[in-house]
Specification:
The chain is an alpha/beta fold. Helix content is 38%, strand content 19%.
């Protein structure tokens, strides 16, 4: 594909790998924040080609995966109503709630639709004034501008039947929560290029300075990631802790200020629960008072719904990088893409799905020692 193959050149990849091997003189542990980066790393086997001791930890950068179970159950309660047309991106449809998922509701007759933009949901609301149209607004800072514009557009059109179930999360507070966690092993980050295309990287500079960790804004293709790893390892070897931008073709330090203005007008920062991780202060977005009338959680009185995570699912450990999917006893057996226990096995950016699609399976367990008679 034009403008893509150049970022997958095997000869250049080999040269970058050779340079990483030459630069790394001791063990280092890096975390890629984005689930899209995780899929490239696992699918291409980048983590297995790095020097011994240079380890990649997979972070909580899958927005579908970190959406708490109670939000999924709230979505299901709203979508089951006869007067509701519930809209969502396709990757949320198979995320299991406590009893069912959106895809099963649709099969049972509920009006659940896949859209490719929140503006599609606004259009449906304009066409069907007899229906309540709800959009499931899930995502990091990347999707927040489009969701903000949808609210602003619905407001301009005066659509009283449009609302959003908001589950936006923010990257920098999650990074600090990981660094503050007991036993944290992360020594450097690969930051998500698409998030930084919106927000820039000024928010990361205090983190790099306070925690003395290099942060490299990185793209999603193999050469992007290899160069990002090289830049981070080089900083660690030199004792530096700075924010660097590998993804210069898409990211500027200040980001997209018009998109940021739209986010600030429509949303305000709140604490947010992350699936399997817990509540992180200042890590989420909700609608401002000006646009509170578009809040589906309030409109449909589902705020009190709570949910209990499946005890067999170790999503929290996967999302914080303390364990990998093959450590989970349910992985590949009780939990598969066709029958998932949790979102990391369903989402196109989930770590468990990445491992499964790459054919990674648990190592055989050694037989238990025979008991002496």
């Amino acid at each position: 594909m034009k403008y893509l193959d150049e970022y997958r050149d095997p000869a250049l990849a080999r040269r970058l790998l050779d340079e990483i091997h030459a630069v790394a003189t001791r063990p280092w542990t890096l975390m890629e924040v984005c689930g899209g980066q995780t899929h490239t790393i696992v699918r291409q086997g980048i983590d297995e080609l790095l020097p011994p001791g240079v380890r990649m930890i997979h972070g909580p950068g899958c927005p579908v995966c970190v959406t708490p179970l109670e939000l999924v159950d709230k979505a299901l309660a709203i979508a089951a109503r006869e007067d509701v047309t519930f809209t969502s991106y396709g990757d949320m449809l198979r995320v299991p709630g406590n009893a069912t998922d959106l895809l099963a509701l649709r099969a049972g007759g509920s009006d659940v639709r896949v859209v490719y933009s929140p503006l599609d949901a606004v259009r449906i609301a304009g066409q069907r004034p007899d229906r309540e149209v709800v959009f499931f607004a899930v995502g990091f800072e990347t999707t927040a501008p489009a969701n903000a514009m949808a609210v602003l557009h619905a407001h301009r059109l005066g659509l009283p039947n449009f609302s959003m179930l908001v589950s936006h999360v923010l990257v920098p507070p999650a990074m600090t929560a990981i660094l503050d966690a007991p036993g944290c092993e992360v020594q450097g980050f690969l930051a998500a290029g698409h998030v930084c295309a919106v927000m820039g990287w000024t928010e990361y500079e205090p983190i790099a300075d306070r925690y003395r960790v290099p942060i490299v804004v990185t793209g999603f293709e193999p050469l992007d990631l290899l160069e990002g790893i090289l830049m981070a390892v080089r900083q660690l070897e030199q004792g530096r802790a700075e924010v660097q931008n590998q993804y210069a073709r898409a990211v500027r330090r200040q980001g997209n200020t018009e998109a940021q203005d739209a986010i600030r007008r429509v949303f305000r920062v709140v604490e947010r629960a992350w699936r399997g991780i817990g509540t992180i202060p200042g890590s989420g977005l909700t609608l401002t008072e000006e646009f509170a009338g578009y809040d589906a959680e309030t409109r449909f009185a589902v705020a009190d719904i709570t949910a209990q995570e499946n005890p067999l699912c170790i999503a929290g450990d996967i999302l914080t990088g303390t364990r990998v999917p093959t450590d989970c006893p349910a992985y590949g057996a009780l939990c598969t893409p066709r029958g998932p226990l949790g979102a990391p096995m369903v989402s196109t950016e989930g770590t468990c799905a990445a491992y499964f699609s790459a054919g990674r399976r648990p190592l055989p367990r050694p037989p238990a020692p025979a008991r002496s008679s």
